[in-house]
């Protein structure tokens, strides 16, 4: 649909209880009623919000008061608008005097209500600019602070420098660890030596006599001497 800018013309308007021929201007922001087409004397100006609505006597839900206000005017129509600088809504009554003029005004008011308002257009434009700026920033913001002359240089370590006190503490820890390792080696060697010494005791064992009852050592010596004499 083409963008709506303005619709203006003479039209009958119900001002309180009387009908007057006025010059009316419908724009995306406002609906203004003038005394004449020179626009010197303003009879009223109303906000053309997106909630603006037109109705005829044949429209569903038309209020009963409209029948009384537009009695005897078959081409009349009502417009519901927001009050300018006030809270609430107002109802205006017009008479197109013929079907074509009635429809032209109702279409113009509907188009004006549907047209984006200046504030909304500014917000949309600002949002587009903001989105574009954000996209541009997001693509380069991570490069801020980079020294491009050193871009390919190896990165420096982020570890804090070690001072003399830390060196001393590390040396003490290293020495204690070395002493602990030496002590563990002594324990392992001692256990290994004890195991070997217990096995070495079996080297002189006479396995042929293992399990035989042990006799008297003196009688064994005498028997040995007798056997030597018999040999002689």
Oligomer type? single chain
In terms of structural class, how would the helical and strand content be classed? alpha+beta
- Please report the number of helical segments: 5
Q: Alpha-carbon distance between the termini?
A: 149 Å
Q: Strand order within the widest sheet? A: 1-2-3-4-6-7
Strand tally is: 7
The amount of helix comes to 40-55%
**Major sheet attributes:** 6 strands, antiparallel, barrel
User: What is the residue-mean pLDDT, rounded to a whole number?
Assistant: 74
Order of helices and strands: EEEEEHEEHHHH
Instruction: Give the overall silhouette.
Output: rod-shaped
Tell me the strand percentage band.
15-25%
Residue ranges: pLDDT <50 for 5 or more in a row? Answer: none
